[in-house]
From TrEMBL:
<comment type="similarity">
    <text>Belongs to the ABC-4 integral membrane protein family. FtsX subfamily.</text>
</comment>
<keyword id="KW-0472">Membrane</keyword>
<dbReference type="Pfam" id="PF18075">
    <property type="entry name" value="FtsX_ECD"/>
</dbReference>
<feature type="transmembrane region" description="Helical">
    <location>
        <begin position="268"/>
        <end position="295"/>
    </location>
</feature>
<keyword id="KW-1003">Cell membrane</keyword>
<dbReference type="InterPro" id="IPR004513">
    <property type="entry name" value="FtsX"/>
</dbReference>
<keyword id="KW-0132">Cell division</keyword>
<dbReference type="InterPro" id="IPR040690">
    <property type="entry name" value="FtsX_ECD"/>
</dbReference>
<feature type="domain" description="FtsX extracellular">
    <location>
        <begin position="56"/>
        <end position="159"/>
    </location>
</feature>
<keyword id="KW-1133">Transmembrane helix</keyword>
<keyword id="KW-0131">Cell cycle</keyword>
<dbReference type="GO" id="GO:0005886">
    <property type="term" value="C:plasma membrane"/>
</dbReference>
<dbReference type="GO" id="GO:0051301">
    <property type="term" value="P:cell division"/>
</dbReference>
<feature type="transmembrane region" description="Helical">
    <location>
        <begin position="21"/>
        <end position="41"/>
    </location>
</feature>
<dbReference type="InterPro" id="IPR003838">
    <property type="entry name" value="ABC3_permease_C"/>
</dbReference>
<feature type="transmembrane region" description="Helical">
    <location>
        <begin position="178"/>
        <end position="201"/>
    </location>
</feature>
<comment type="subunit">
    <text>Forms a membrane-associated complex with FtsE.</text>
</comment>
């Protein structure tokens, strides 16, 4: 097989269908970028879940004069009530650790956690966050047993499970992931159709050459290879453009999400590189397979 001839045929095909090739590259780039973004969001959700689910705590907020719960009767929790609640929590089999946090400690932790949002911190004053018990569970799924035991106890204002907050947040991330993958699927379908049209046009323009090649005994593989490589090269270029878009996506979306939202852990570059490699390989394979299937139908050999 003459490599020079194959490369020449590839260049001729790409040059003759330059506008369609450019359209194909752009479509593949967008499709692979969205596909990669969906994978990045998936990895971000998985990493965040692994990081935070073993740090989940149940916050039991105690009564204060500003509490709206009628159980509190607009009074601060008493020392006796606080000690009774702590003893009850320590005896529960679901609880692994109990830490008391007063108003000053709660405000200091609040300022540290939301240091990146100065406006939010400035609008909150010391004393707005009531005393609380921060309860570490042996199994985060056993939250309901602790909540039911503590609710309506004297001195308890409310019980908040951080797991429920995380679940709602992760549902938003999962929704973004599904949206990105759905749009990517639509773009992939468009790319497949565009590959088919490009290969059909290229095969039609070179029907005399392929006819002569058949007469002189050229193999099917030798005739098909330039067309398949044209699609693969377009997919490769589109994948490379998609890798640039994925780097921007990591910088502008994933990193900003991790920086602005304290519930999200940082996603490493090793994961991004792996997603880029997968996206490029998928783009090349998609275009090559689409070209091959189109040739079997429209190139009579």
């Amino acid at each position: 097989m003459r490599v020079q001839f194959v490369l020449q045929e590839i260049w001729i095909g790409l040059r003759r269908n330059m506008t369609m090739t450019i359209s194909l590259v752009i479509t593949v780039a967008i499709a692979m970028a969205l596909f990669g973004t969906g994978l990045l969001l998936r990895q971000q959700v998985s990493a965040s879940k692994s990081y935070w689910y073993d740090k989940i705590e149940v916050s039991i907020f105690l009564c204060a004069k500003t509490s709206s719960n009628p159980v509190c009767q607009k009074q601060d929790v008493t020392e006796q009530q606080r000690e009774t609640l702590k003893a009850q929590l320590a005896k529960m089999p679901q609880v692994s650790d109990v830490q008391y946090e007063n108003k000053q400690q709660a405000y200091a932790r609040f300022k540290d956690r939301f240091a990146g949002s100065p406006g939010f911190v400035e609008s909150t004053r010391e004393g707005d966050i009531p005393d609380s018990f921060r309860v570490k569970l042996k199994n985060p799924e056993e939250y309901k047993a602790v909540a039911q035991a503590m609710l309506n106890q004297p001195g308890v204002d409310s019980v908040i499970n951080e797991q429920e907050i995380l679940k709602r947040f992760f549902r938003i991330l999962n929704g973004l992931q599904v949206a990105a993958l759905t749009i990517a699927l639509i773009q992939v379908i468009a790319a497949v159709m565009l590959v088919g049209n490009t290969v059909r046009l290229s095969a039609f323009n070179r029907r005399r050459e392929t006819g002569i090649m058949r007469l002189v005994g050229a193999s099917n593989t030798y005739i098909q290879l330039p067309f398949i490589l044209e699609g693969a090269i377009a997919g490769l270029i589109g994948g490379l453009f998609a890798s640039v878009l994925l780097i921007f996506s990591k910088k502008l979306l994933v990193d900003r999400l991790a920086g602005d939202v304290q519930l999200v852990s940082q996603l490493g570059w090793s994961v991004v590189i792996l997603v880029i490699i997968v996206s490029i390989c998928f783009g090349v394979l998609l275009c090559a397979v689409s070209s091959f299937l189109t040739l079997r139908r429209y190139l009579r050999i």
